[in-house]
Amino acid sequence: MAAGSDRPLILVTNDDGVHAPGIKALAEIAAEYGEVVVCAPSQDKSGVAHSISLHEALRVFEARAGAWAVTGTPVDCVYVGALHLCDRTPALVLSGINHGYNLGSDVYYSGTVGAAREGQLRGSHALAVSHDREANLADVAPFVRVVVEQLLGLQAGMPVLLNLNVPANVQGDRPVVTRLGQRVYRDLVDERRDLQGRPYFWIGGPPEKADGQEGTDVWATRRGFASLTPLTLDCTAPTLDAWTQRIGGPSYADVGDDD
Ligand code: MN
Predict the structure, then answer these.
(1) What is the pLDDT of residue 209?
(2) Which regions of the chain does DSSP assign to beta strands (E)?
(3) Using one digit for the tens of pLDDT, what is the confidence trace for 65-110?
(4) How many angstroms separate the alpha carbon of residue 130 from the centre of ligand 1?
(5) Residue 206 CA to chain centroid, in angstroms?
(6) 0.85 cut: is pTM over it?
(7) How many CB atoms lie within 10 A of CB 33?
(8) Residue 193 φ/ψ, nearest 5 degrees
(9) Which DSSP category does 106 fall into?
(10) So what's the pLDDT on residue 212?
């Protein structure tokens, strides 16, 4: 359990599992800035998004000195880490460094981003970090430092969520701020047969190379730039008036309290 300290408390997690090289690299960076608690899934939980284990028990054990493994999802790890292993709300939740990009619609599937989002929901500034599978962790580190320094300089109370992706052979020394683009995959449902002749399925094909619209994370990383996308919890579309007209009902302003 982390004892009180003047240094900022940083909770580090991931979805690739507590033994992945990426989380070890991220924890080493975090230790340059604060007191670190590592709490991550005991196994690879990539692609579990924001799932939480409400119907099964979680085991928590020390995987190595200062690093806790949880038999659950990345969100479980932030929940247990922030509320049980940490003695105060972490200043920062870092998630990654994920082996593989999390771009565009990936943020709805990614356990890496899910964990960071949970950190934001629990009142911490949060950063998800992912890299191209061909990139090496040493090249990612300077970009993480740039963003972590900015996050630690922000006031607490209005937590932000950032999504950082770093390509191989990255250009420059600062990420380009982008919006979410469109990730394209070769969609696959692969039907196979088990030894009894019954069908089973593998879903999810490999990513396709897509250029993406200018200004998006897909676009920036395709051009060799690190991409930083600020995300919001409120994904309401800016079309409330149009929908109010289509539905023909009262607007929220019509039914709101006047006083
Ligand atoms: Mn992963």
Answers:
(1) 82
(2) 9-13, 35-41, 60-64, 67-70, 92-99, 125-131, 161-166, 171-177, 189-193, 199-203, 225-231
(3) 999 999 999 999 999 999 999 999 999 999 999 999 999 999 999 9
(4) 8
(5) 20
(6) yes
(7) 18
(8) -120, 135
(9) G
(10) 87
Mean pLDDT of 229-252: 94
Beta strand pairing call for 189-193 and 199-203: antiparallel
For 125, the 3-state DSSP assignment is strand
Distance CA 81, CA 79 (A): 5
Handedness of CA 146, 147, 148, 152 (dihedral sign): positive
Q: Cα of 99 to ligand 1 centre, how many Å?
A: 6
- The rounded Å distance from CA 96 to ligand 1 centre is 8
pLDDT tens per residue across span 164-178: 999 999 999 999 999
Distance 238 CA to ligand 1 centre (A): 32
Q: How far is the CA of 17 from the centre of ligand 1 (A)?
A: 8
